């Protein structure tokens, strides 16, 4: 996360991403179930916190690309046509899905009759 604070990686006096916020991933203190006598489903505190933090990880690169594409599209003189086209594509997909649903319902009804 050094990029977030404008810190360069080349400065060796600053801690790296792996040194901030606790031990690096994979260094958890897990005892095999055979040694603890338990079923093996118990996690240590470091494993619990690591699994909790994994839920909060977010890669924003896709979101940034989408935002950039949206900005470029807004600046385009064909923005309205592109929006209309995407609306038509969405309506077409919805109609196709409705047709498939009706097909499935018809096949279920015919299976019930047989």
From TrEMBL:
Entry's transmembrane regions: none
Any one of the GO BP annotations: mitochondrion organization
Keyword Cytoplasm: no
Subcellular location(s) of the protein: Mitochondrion membrane
Domain ATPase family AAA: 45-114
Superkingdom classification of source: Eukaryota
Coiled coil: 63-114
Keywords, sorted A to Z: ATP-binding, Coiled coil, Membrane, Mitochondrion, Mitochondrion inner membrane, Nucleotide-binding
One MF annotation (Gene Ontology) recorded for this entry: zinc ion binding
Keyword RNA-binding: no
Region (Disordered): 1-51
InterPro entries in the cross-refs: ATAD3_N
Pfam families attached to this UniProt entry: ATAD3_N
One GO term describing the cellular component: mitochondrial membrane
Protein name: Atpase family aaa domain-containing protein 3-a
């Amino acid at each position: 996360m050094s990029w977030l604070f404008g810190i360069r990686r080349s400065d060796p006096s600053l801690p790296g991403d792996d040194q901030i916020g606790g031990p690096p991933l994979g260094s958890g203190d897990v005892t095999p179930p055979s040694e603890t006598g338990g079923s093996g489903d118990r996690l240590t505190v470091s494993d619990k916190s690591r699994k909790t933090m994994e839920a909060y990880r977010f890669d924003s690169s896709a979101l940034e690309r989408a935002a950039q594409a949206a900005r470029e599209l807004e600046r385009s003189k064909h923005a309205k046509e592109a929006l209309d086209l995407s609306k038509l594509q969405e309506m077409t997909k919805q109609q196709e899905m409705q047709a498939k649903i009706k097909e499935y319902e018809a096949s279920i009804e015919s299976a019930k009759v047989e």
